Amino acid sequence: MTNTAILIAAIVFWLAAWYANTRLAALRPERGPMVTLVNLAIPVLFGAAILALWEGITRGFGVPTVILPPPSMIWERIISSVPTLWADFQQTYLKGVVSGYLIGCSLGFLVAVLVDRSRFWKAGVMPIGNLVSALPIVGIAPIMVMWFGFDWQSKAAVVVVMTFFPMLVNTVAGLDAAGHMERDLMHTYASTRTQSLIKLRLPAAMPFIFNALKINSTLALIGAIVAEFFGTPIVGMGFRISAEVGRLNVDMVWATIFVAALAGSLSYGAIALVERSVTFWHPSMRSERP
Amino acid sequence: MGVWLFDGGSAIMIRTRILPILTVVAAIIAVWYAFAVILNAPFERNAAERAGETIGFAEILPKTMSQQRPVLPAPHQVAVEIWETTVEKNITSKRSLIYHAWVTLSATLLGFMMGTALGILLAVGIVHSRVLDKSMMPWIITSQTIPILALAPMIIVVFNSVGVTGLLPKALISTYLSFFPVAVGMVKGLRSPETMHMDLMHTYSANRAQTFWKLRWPSSVPFLFTSMKIGIAASLVGAIVGELPTGAVAGLGARLLAGSYYGQTVQIWSALIVAAVLAGLLVGLIGWIGGWLNRRMGVREARA
Lengths: 290, 304
Known about the structure:
The complex is a heterodimer of chains A (290) and B (304). Chain A is mainly α and 290 residues long. Chain A has helices at residues 3-27, 33-60, 71-80, 82-115, 119-133, 141-148, 152-175, 180-188, 193-228, 237-246, 250-278. Chain B has two domains: 4-71; 97-297, MetI-like fold (Orthogonal Bundle). At the A-B interface, helix 1, helix 2, helix 5, helix 6 and helix 9 of A face helix 1, helix 5, helix 6, helix 9 and helix 10 of B.
């Protein structure tokens, strides 16, 4: 096929998808499996249309692959370099992100439970924690690389610091979420501090804790990748991106970003699934239909 | 904020708010000093050993506070460095942190404004069109789970190869990072008017534009400012990371990178502190404008 034909085909596909989406959105099914189907089909069609348009424009106008490679080329690159991508994924995600995420989140949680015992410390920690959560913490990456070396330990350290504060702030806020009535009820049961913490306040804090877990899953990946820009062994997603950008192998960069996006969305989705089963009682989890 | 300092309960406010914060800050600085001594001591011990001397803790202590390239600089070293590079240096000098902060800040602000405008436009489209809502919202939410910052080096290099350098590529990264929170927050905000109010507008036979300007837009303002606070913090991170890959010569990110190349830890820490202060000021400024607007408009602050 010539490039012009590809461009025209892409535009036709895009228009057709747009039209189909308009019709689908106008259907407004009341209930049943049709709702799920329509809600799924529309974004999928939209995504496919964007991909088709991307392919059509890059090929049709002959955009240099250095600037923007077509999706088909990126896909070929992903298929042909699975071992490299897997090694990078292992180095950055399985070693750096997961260990840092676990340490950072549990530390934040533990400190929050400790701080919760004193109103004074809570009043001091909360504003500072909120402030620190808004700071560009990735900036500590060069320091961590100096302290912990080039390997994944320094990346995990960056992730620990980045995930600590959102977890701390959210857990402290969550532990205050249980209502007065329920607290008074626990009091009438003569429950100890620990009992009411475990049986009432921690469960009530779960939506907040999961919120932090979800925010942190993205932050952790960003932290590990950016930390690799400051120094790394010759493997890892951040290293791959900065090295291949330097060699203008933009398709490899996109392939790495695809892996990062996949890892990010899958871990987010996994946490959301666990959340659904742990906080099934929360109003936001109820299905819309009675 | 701001007003309560002067009302009758100010003594209680100081005791229940200011004092705890000051205590935590003092604790952080104390821990920082302790770690500075612990982490910098081995260097002094080695130096003494090489010189064939034995030194006691009393001699190590002051030395750990004044090393040229400490593992962890003491807080006052960082403070002195910041003072020297902001107040005592000419603003136009390449060694002035104010100059570097301005380079980063200009990219941040440009990107943030473009991102906010884009986010608002997108939200208006999504609220008014069912097709856009159904097809774009899932992707906007998914895109939040993607480490977008990983794109930063590519955007910079690609723009450089086309001949676009300087402010714009960095600002684009900031735009990219700040438009998501604004779009999501604004969709929430534009949908926040209650059915009662929408029905009232309907009984006035208001058209879409009138409903938008007189009801939807005003009620979305608290949400806008809440998400703008997140957006500007993300913008700053984007601008700093955007300065890394090209080995940029100016900006806070460049100071971080140069500091890490030459082992100038004091320089890294002072750049970090300035970045933190900048972030605090920007978020505070937006929060203050938002609070002022909310009071003027008589609405409560939104929790997006």
